[in-house]
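Forwarding the complex inputs:
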Amino acid sequence: MAEPVLLAVQAVTKRFGGLVALDQVSLVVEPGEIRGLIGPNGAGKTTLVNVLSGVLSPTSGSIRFAGAEIAGQPAHRIALLGIRRTFQTLRLFAEMSALDNVAVGYHGHQRAEVADALLKTGRARREEQETLEQSREALAFVGLTVSAGTPAGALAYGQQRLLELARGLVGRPRLLLLDEPAAGMNPAECDHLLGLIRRIQARGVALLIIEHRMDLIMEACEQITVLNYGRNLAEGAPAEIQAHKDVIEAYLGQTRRA
Amino acid sequence: MGGRRSALGWVVLGIAVLVLPWILPQRYFLRVVDLALIYGTLALGLQLLVGWAGQLSIGHAAFYGTGAYTSAILTTKLGVPVEAAFVGGGLVASLLALTLMPITRLRGNELAVATLGFGVIIHAVILNEEWLTEGPFGMMRIPPLRVGPLLLNTEFRFYYAALAVTAITYFAFRRLTRSRFGRALEAIRQNEEAARTCGINPVVYKSKVFVIAAFTAGLAGSLFAHLNGYLNPNDFTFVESINVLMMVVVGGLHSLGGAVVGAVLLVFASEYLRALREYRMIVFGAVLILLMALGGEGVRAVPRLLLAAARQVFRAARHRWAPPPGDG
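Prediction (whole assembly, two chains):
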């Protein structure tokens, strides 16, 4: 059976007390697609990513991922199902080494229990070796060439962003949510990121990207969803979005970022 | 890792601890060492909880007391062999920790207060359930530890049992902290939300680490019961929990060796500073504040700081006696 839709968000609402952060938001991501998610500040983009990744549960609505309902599931279960994310404000394990940070992302692919660790069973050894191999591979993939022992907190900002990306990727997600991956990056780093996003897609991973840098979004995405005041405002290809009357209006209401 | 040098270090340390009771066979001294080893085991468990998983528990004496009383009750009232009662102390303490699963959802201060409450409850139970624990009179005539035909009824013999328990706990924890399990604990401590989005269920890991820490605390309690031969409810109050926490902090957070070193330092300090009486706690408190101000590294920071201070003194002296050209 064909599987046309990877992620189907339907009429998702999220309220914080009286504030409606997401109001009946709907969104579809096809397998292997790069989908952009834009909108003025406060449009609910990060809230949507938090709801999709299980960091927050939606007040109502349905989220189907690979055919299963995941709305309101705990974050760790959603991660194991194949949705990984990065954070707008970096959330690394600052005192752990870069390599260990990535290895944490591989947690779900390991099975060794406490007893395995105590007895150093074959399974524990095999898995540990595999974890380190996969983690090194992910670091190399994102182009992070640091000595693996460096504490994550000691890396440069752009490197920390790449490290978070590697941590998400190593878990072999089917959908990767990137919340402002280019924030704080210089133009060269942005170019690198764009190439990286394409190589991630080539691995068969779908991406949902929030980004304020329109050049990156327009360049990278096939389809863009626009939110405004927690509601769907528009949807379409980059050229359509750029010409969309409502989008221009929404963005012109405030200082334009590009 | 400095493989060869550290291997040599382990051999030297191993020989030193094995011959220690032969070189310094004074009973009082060995008793203090035995106590230090018991607290070493206790502090190791709390180190895993606080230094790795970041779960601040200020009720650790509850597990320690549970292990001690379990072993005492099993041997004196139910005639269970000491070897089995020893393990029983650990098991009952870890079963008790399982009941804490709901509070592992709490974080930070809330968790600390909940563990405090837990410690108070256990102490109240020990104090008041006289049919089980003899209440405020305490449990008497607890038999000494034995391993088959070998009776460990002297400080000297007990030393090797306590040493074995501490060493096994240390090496077991070393493996744990270097595994998937340990990595998950560290991730939870450093950023719980990020850990969850990496597929780690914090409640499961916190519960497991509580059970493990409680098990080793229970074993330490059993050891204490059979070394001392007598248990009093006041051995297991809030103050005792703070004591163990102090050992962890003094030894340095996030260091297994530090937990043992902290235990040895504090047990020896409190025994040999008895002359200071109440002032002892003031000294302890001041040292603790100082160590926290140094950033949670504990006594590990001391050599580095001494070196830095020496360098500064040296530089000041040089400056004074040989002012660089163009100066003044």
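Chain A touches chain B at residues 53-55, 74-77, 79-80, 84-85, 87, 91-96, 100, 103-105, 107-108, 110, 112-114, 116-118, 120, 124, 127-128, 131, 167, 171 (CB under 8 Å).
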